[in-house]
Amino acid sequence: MRFLSFRKLFLRSRIALILVLLALFAAVSARTEEPAVFAISGARIFPVSGAPLEKGTVILRNGIIEAVGANVPIPPDARTLDGTGLTVYPGLIDGLCDAGLEEPRAPQAPGPPSARPGPPAAPAQPTQQAPAPPAAERPLLNSHVQAADLINPTNRKIESARAVGITTALVAPRTGIFEGQSSLVNLSGASVGAMVVKTPVAMHISLQSAGGFGGGYPSSLMGVVAFVKQTFLDAERYDVAWNIYNVHTGVVRPDYNHSLQALIPVLKRELPAVVPGDTPAQIQRAMELAQSFKLKCILSGGSEAARIAPLLKEKGVPVLLSMKFPERDRDSDPELEEELPVLRRRVEAPVNAAALAKAGVQFAFQSGDISSPRDFMRNIARSVEAGLPKDIAMRALTLTAAEIFGVAGKLGSIEKGKTANLTIATGDIFDSRTRVKYVFIDGKKYDITEPEPE
Questions:
Q1: Can you tell me the distance from the alpha carbon of 274 to that of 296, in angstroms, rounded to the nearest whole number?
Q2: Among the four 56, 106, 189, 235, which has the fewest Cβ within 10 Å?
Q3: Whole-prediction pTM value?
Q4: Looking at the DSSP assignment, which residues form a beta bridge with residue 440?
């Protein structure tokens, strides 16, 4: 009996010890886990949607902005971040980049396969232009691909973007003529499901040809435009065929095609089409292509868009303005004189944004294929130095981008009820001496380390 009593006492002691250890572990975890409530107090605040606050407080709770103002009380359960000497901005938005994408930029696909019976043939192409293959066989038709399915949360570009204050980015597939559908993602580096803000956002179309004879289909700009038009015509017929089948009995069911199906929302103006164009001629071509199918058009690039700004304003076409400015090749001969058009483009690049703003054209900034996010921010600062008002530059990086992408109710400004995406810097974000100290993404704080000297 004594042995049994001792054994029971021993077991009870062990259970009690385990419970105590579990309680201690829970207490330590509670102290080290990211809090659900943050208060940034005493900081200069740029809401973008309203006047700046010279000294205010922002409360974040469960990933949402709970309050913002000059006299906001700090909740007792909040972790306070002293914002003295710091400036709080909405999280910056990159209007188009490849942060997080793992898909390589593949070369243009080889020529079309041999003809088969099936979907309608493409219209006649110019001399020595190969005929368009059927829609179901086109290697350059990737309209069904969504960028959200190509994201790698551990991609190093995500951290590099955060280091300059970018919290959100539009990412898009990059292969084919119909490249696919873009996704707007928060650059948290968490799971893909937690990063996606909206998908799809737009359909992205490239007008780049394979180039030259034997370079693949299509090998000319005219061929690319014909390919795009024929594909949209195929999608229209595809939609009609399915509508007839769904309404009437005794009708043969059409073949399902995921690429053509993905284009139906574009034709119905439910999904915008992002079309590239830099020179006035390219921009007019992109707009005419969109107009021929009454598409909701967004221009991408726009490096010379200022020269055609009145037309962009008249048609209400927003621009994802590239901040990749033309630079002289480092390996070029310094004694070699450059052509006048090249010099003109280099001089005009920084003033492009100011001219668009003056004309009332809606635009957001994109880094595109700029290798360094710091160069992206530097070139925006150069645009400010060239006459772009700072408030418009900040809006283009935040609220205007959110408006173009249809998420202005969630992102782009510091307002109660919006997603808790913030960029906190040591001063004016367009000043080269300013450093980003923290970013908040969905209410989670990320400390930014000092950049390595370049």
A1: 9
A2: 106
A3: 0.84
A4: 422, 445
